[in-house]
Amino acid sequence: MTNIKLYHLGELMTNCYLVYDDNKDAFIVDPADKSDAMLKDIEKMGLKVRYLILTHGHGDHTGGIDFFKAAFPDVMLIASKKERNFLYDRKVSYGKGGIVADIWTADGDEMTVGSMKLKFISTPGHTPGGQCILVDRKLFSGDTLFHASIGRTDLWGGSFEDIEKSITEKLYKLPEDTAVYPGHMDATTIGYEMRYNPFV
Question: Which of 158, 162, 186 is nearest to 57 (CA)?
């Protein structure tokens, strides 16, 4: 069973997700900022954090990388290979820059974390290398798809044409009951967004 615990971190209250199975294997989606509360929960539950996974490279989603790497020395950072240059350049990522992943993913790549099967879906548009992570019928959509909204495309590397294509040609092909856990705002479902999202 895939369990999800939500934390709101950083100045923009970014959604950061602690995801774990019944065997205590875990990963963190978008380590936005440091979080002593999350560390306490991880210790209390006896979780083994294997990976930090980025949906994209903006600073409000990456600010806690060093904090969690210090807490878990063996943890590995995962990001889309299309986001490589973006993560490295602090001027376009609005973050600290110089970020290099341990594992670079491509569209369609799959991996397992404990009993959880992950699939990486390339969704450019908010940033050049944005990606979503599908676990069972749970989608971590980053800043690609929100509840009744979509990610900004007016920042460096953004493209409305790309994000629209990412959503309609990839995310909307998923089962309608797929739960969507975005980088900001409330959770939603693919079916709801197909019917009511005014932007796509």
Answer: 158
Q: Average pLDDT of the chain?
A: 97
* Main-chain dihedrals φ then ψ at residue 130, nearest 5 degrees: -65, 145
With 90 as the cut, is the pLDDT of residue 91 above it? no
From CA 25, how far away is CA 125, in angstroms rounded? Answer: 31
- Please report which helix (H) or strand (E) contains residue 59, including its range: helix 59-62
Please say if the pLDDT value at position 157 is more than 90.
yes
In the structure, how many helices (H) and strands (E) does the chain have? 7, 14
Side-chain half-sphere CA neighbours of 194 within 13 A: 15
The answer, as to whether pTM is greater than 0.85, is yes
Q: Which residue has the tokens 């939603």?
A: 188
Average pLDDT over every residue of 181-195: 98
Q: What's the gap between Cα 51 and its chain centre?
A: 12
Are 39 and 6 in contact by the 8 Å Cβ rule? The answer is no
The H-assigned helical ranges of 26-83 are 36-45, 59-62, 65-71
For residues 119 and 125, is the Cβ–Cβ distance under 8 A?
no
* C-alpha–C-alpha distance, residues 187 and 191, integer Å: 12
C-alpha distances in Å from residue 186, one per residue of 58, 80, 95, 157 = 20, 24, 24, 25
**CA gap 62, 34 in Å, rounded:** 10
Local structure of 132: helix, strand or coil: strand
